[in-house]
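Final report, Chapter 2: Outcomes

The project's central promise was a pipeline that accepts a single protein chain and returns its three-dimensional structure in a standardized token representation, suitable for archiving and comparison. That pipeline is now operational. To close this chapter, we reproduce one record exactly as it appears in the project archive, with the input sequence first and the structure output second.
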Amino acid sequence: MWGLLVTLVGLALDYGFRRMRWPWFTERLVENSIEGAFFTVLVWGLLSARERQTRRRFKELRYLNHHIRNSLSIIEMAEGQVAEASQRLEMVKTASARIRRCIERISREEECEINEEFPHEP
């Protein structure tokens, strides 16, 4: 798709500037300057979009790592250190619900910031 776009822009500029009948050097200079500016903006836009996507992905990974690791630590602690079954069950349910909310939020592509005031809430 991008190759086709480059080809079409180049051909259109060639055709347009040939019809103006400018001297060869002026024609080449102006045409190549316009093509260079156009493709610079195009590549800059693509790289910026990729960078934004990469930053968002790292933010999501940080969010998942924080909430899921903490929830799994609670589940492990409940298994080994809590004797009462009802309390252990409640801890596991709470941790599982936290993991589920975290994954649901990621799957809906919601904003994934760790709340510094309430870091245990996804």
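Archive annotation: The first helix runs from residue 2 to 20.
This record, like all others produced under the grant, will remain available to the consortium after the project formally closes.
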